[in-house]
Amino acid sequence: MWKKVCAGMLSAALMTGAAGTVFAAESTDEVVSLVNQPGQPLVTTTAAKTATTAAAPAATTAAKTEAPAKVELADKLVINLAARSLAAIRGNQKVALYPIGPGKTTTPTPTGYYKVIDKEVNPTWTDPGDASASIPSGPSNPLGYRWIGIGGNYGIHGTNHPDSVGHYVSNGCIRMHEEDVEKIYDMVEVGTPVEITYNRIVVEKTPDDQIAYYIYPDGYGWQNVTAADVDKWLAGYGVADFVNDADVEQKIAASDGNPTYVAKVYPLYVNGQKLKGKAVIQNGMTYLPAVELAEADKVSLGWKPEEKKLISTYGEAAGYQKKDTLYCDAKDVDTLYHLEGGLDKSGNFSLKNKAKAAEAAKAETTAEAAKDVKTAETKAEKAETAAKTAEKTVKAAAAEAKAK
Fold first, then answer.
1. Catalytic residue IDs
2. d(CA 352, CA 368)
3. Do the beta carbons of residue 261 and residue 283 sit within 8 Å?
4. CA–CA separation, 110 vs 222, rounded Å?
5. CB distance 89 to 77 below 8 Å
6. DSSP-derived secondary structure letter, 242
7. Are 264 and 272 in contact (CB under 8 A)?
8. Strand ranges, E, within 176-290
């Protein structure tokens, strides 16, 4: 039976997100030309449409995800020391999330990329200060009843002090509640990758398409976090424009690890072309990037800063400036761009030019009609062939009867 020793070492890898690119519009009392398409002048008079907002949906915190009843192997384990959590990942999806007790500040758990090198049920503990002192498996064993080695003397294991989980307490190993580590033990095999990070900022997309962000305390004092850092992370999900920096600063000050729900986000397509911007649903309104829509649909677009109106080749509608980007309400895409569509079954927000959509529908109808004609012709040919066959059969029967 292997003897395990937990020791600590100092190592940190701080990770940040990539910044997004946004459009800046000057603020004047004149119409600012945003997109100028040849032969597509801006209209000068059309009543602007106003938008209403609904109350923000209540945010709910998801309960801890348990491992499935039927044990399937995880593709990898991801440990976030700042969040003091361990996640099992399968198919790029988080299938289980558990609290952990990582190393003390004096013996921090090292970050990096590891893999499972050995597994053991009922491990023996060896005192890191005295190799001759050991404790066999049982209630007094500080390793609990499962050991998952990940390199050197480091491992993921149970504990006989469950109240220590959730705190920085070990000599560098990862402590877990016994019932949790037993589930993880069954989900990994020798060779399973283990990624250990220290990320105070975590952004994720929930199963109902909400983008949520978390800010965790700086337990090791390794990572200073600013509102700009949070914006960079959120930009990668298309929602950086939809958070207030003052609110983000408050979240950083709290660093409580609780989720903050920003908005629902969907990929945006115009005439089959995927845009860089997203369709963002916040407080009951669907925001679409106004300039990108104009460029994709080849429509001229201008901006009246004082009136907060977008003015296009076809008409006017309310515009919404969020940070350096202009948005329109999805309900106004017909007025501004002669587009139609919405959220489809594939989870994409798809829009098509009305004229092109009509042509496509006409072509589809024509194709269906041609198909119906072809089907009718085929049926007629089969019927004619069957009639001829039947006639031959009758003649042959008559000839045979006459011969008899």
1. 157, 173
2. 21
3. no
4. 12
5. yes
6. G
7. no
8. 193-197, 201-205, 210-215, 260-270, 273-282, 285-289
Distances (CA, A) of 13 to 110, 197, 348: 9, 7, 35
pLDDT tier, 371 (very low <50, low <70, confident <90, very high otherwise): confident
The whole-angstrom distance between residue 224's C-alpha and the CA centroid of its chain comes to: 25
Strand 154-157, strand 174-175: pairing: parallel
pLDDT at 119 over 70: yes
- Do residues 265 and 280 make contact, with C-beta atoms less than 8 angstroms apart? yes
What confidence score (pLDDT) does residue 56 get?
Answer: 39
Contact 86, 194 (CB under 8 A): no
* Amino acid at the residue 279: A
- The closest alpha carbon to 125, from 144, 149, 110, 106, belongs to 144
24 touches 324 (CB < 8 A): yes
The sheet with strand 154-157 has its strands ordered as 118-121, 146-151, 154-157, 174-175
Residue with tokens 């042959």: 396
Closest CA to 270 of 353, 355, 335: 353
Is the pLDDT score of 158 beyond 70? yes
Output the CA–CA distances (angstroms, integers) from residue 211 to 15, 65, 235, 268, 379, in the order listed: 19, 18, 11, 16, 55
Positive or negative torsion for Cα 293, 295, 299, 303 = positive
What's the token pair of residue 383? 């019927």
pTM above 0.85, yes or no: no
Q: How many CB atoms lie within 10 A of CB 4?
A: 23
Helix (H) or strand (E) holding 3: strand 3-4
Q: pLDDT tens digit string along 256-284?
A: 999 999 999 999 999 999 999 999 999 99
Tell me the chain's radius of gyration from C-alpha atoms: 32
Say how far apart CA 176 and CA 143 lie, in whole Å: 9
Q: Distance between CA 76 and CA 150 in Å, rounded? A: 12
Tokens 């979240």 — which residue? 251
Burial 254-272 (b: 16+ CB within 10 A, else e): ebeeebbbbbbbbebbbbe
pLDDT digits (tens, 9 = 90+) for 199-221: 999 999 998 999 999 999 999 99
